[in-house]
Amino acid sequence: RRLKLAALASNPAVTEELPGDAAGRDGEDSFVRAIQGKTSAPSVKIFREVRVPHDAVPARRFEIDVVLACRSCLVVVEVKNWSGDVSPDPAQASSTATPGAGAWLQTRRDGSTLRHEDPLALLRRKAASLAAWLSSVHGLDLPDGFVRIKLVLVNGRHLRVDPRLTALPAVYHHEAVDDACAADLSWAGGLLAWMAGELLPWDKTRAMHAALAAAPTWDVLRLEGGATLRGDFRGFEGPG
């Protein structure tokens, strides 16, 4: 048995990361680096992979890609590194008076299609759950309109988005997001300007930052070969 364990330790199985997982993480990294490159204000804090209680299933959690927290607002950000074409689902677009409401249809470059069930509605639920968690667990009641949402589509060079979606205030699509080292980070400055508003007192801002810093995140297990597993780590079982 010891020889078997030694062989496993010296020759671990190689598990490569799935392309979709890698693309999603790379998109989040690009977005965060660009925001960090545009601001050094101590009042602006960035938190990643924040988990908050699910609003319908107590045993589950919502995961928020990025939270931007400053004195003027709290922005719940979903980062999508999609490719191809994205538009409102034709089956629902004609049945709603609200542009962008309902499912979105993504047509990939290989011709395959994916249906995304109302991404903005899901993001609003995540934002509401985060606000409820801050209130119930940390006693932080934020002003009306303080919590905002932003769906960021980062693959500007390989993604075409229907104008009905890009016109929505909660949707952001710009090819410069792809290159966090680009000289022109005006898009990031524009996003930060959009975050302006009435300021929270400093003590409440610091309490908000502390609460978010202590928020649950996923356990991360990195495998030989590049794959990354995220979840609740309960233990490990080896051979024998």
From TrEMBL:
Pfam families registered for this protein in UniProt: NERD
Transmembrane segments: none
Every NERD domain range: 24-136
Domain of life: Eukaryota
UniProt protein name: NERD domain-containing protein
Lineage: Eukaryota, Viridiplantae, Chlorophyta, Mamiellophyceae, Mamiellales
